[in-house]
Amino acid sequence: MKFSSVLILALQISTCQGFVLPNTFVSKSSHLFSTVETKDLSLTEQDEQLKEPTSVRAPLKFMGPYPCLGLKFPHLATSAQRAKNMSGISLDFLLDTAANVNTINSQVATELQLSEAGEALPGVSAAGSMGGGTTYMLGDCELEGVAEEASFMQELTASALPVESPASAGLLSLPFFHCFEGGVEFDWVGQQMDGKQLPPSVTFYGPGDSDAILQDITRVKIEELPVTRLPMVQLNINNMTIPALLDTGSPITVINAQAAKEAGIETAEISTSNDDDKKGGNLFSNFANRFQQAQAAAQAAARGDLITIAGADGKPVQLIKSQSEAGVHLASDDDEIVDFGNSNIYVGNLPGLAALNGLGDESPPAAVLGMDILRKKPKMLLLARNQEVYF
């Protein structure tokens, strides 16, 4: 994987500056998400019945295994557009629930000639910790693929950081999800309507708009990690409960070695070291052994038994697939379970496990619940403000 400089969308997790929520008292406004001053926000029963929904649905794109949202910036322009006195660009952002800063490739800032707006604080993501950087102004943006052109975010800012950006221009993180009082619903497969299969979508709900659907789905409580404030759930693998990050930014589910041991997970056998190398041995023999190990690793990768990623220190980290499938579910407060069925699990030191103190030989059991398992359910509704997720 390649590392590149990126931008952080400078949003504080406790506020929604730049993101303004839907409000039915601004029906004449062209903004889907806006706030207005009003003396009396109380609604009569009749008002409640006449209230228009304050939610909006947009296409959910998949860049490989990554769920992405397209945003349009009508006031930004590339160098080619500026030469023709034109403006308007679209960018795809990974929707990442286990990052607390939002990113965009730094080449965008240069190409779009963004103005500086301050400094961003350090943050974290599944790739590990991220240092601070210069903040830039991106301005207002709209949702791509929505018929009505209306402002979705206002005065969006971003900061350049050296962190990996997978498959998209950047990512939208947990502060983004906190901006929607009614939650954000991922429809991984798309709805059936009039006998037709609609494409995947993501719905942003205003206050109270998701209440009706909550009755038919299962609630799972989220625990907010200290300092990072990332979402943690209690993942059950082979009847062993393991703290896990809820991570739509990870294409796979990963557990550390201690969790694998306690859950009885055995991994595929892959040669990664050689005793002759440690003892010295014949130079040509060592070279041949290393070549054989490389071949074995390549074959394992081709089978899907081995994934190699860059660790927090830039060195390669190997994630090894379990030999057999394991039962996976989440428990709810209502004595119900969200059963994901049986799945293979990867074992290794994914950098994001550091948020749970899950790296190293002496670390406690820890996991990252990724897209391979989350997509086994057709939908997921995240109410970040309430620290709840529904399936």
Automatic annotation (TrEMBL):
Keywords: Signal. It holds the Pfam family Asp_protease_2. GO terms for biological process: proteolysis. Residues 1-18 form the signal peptide. It comes from the Eukaryota. GO terms for molecular function: aspartic-type endopeptidase activity. This is Peptidase A2 domain-containing protein.
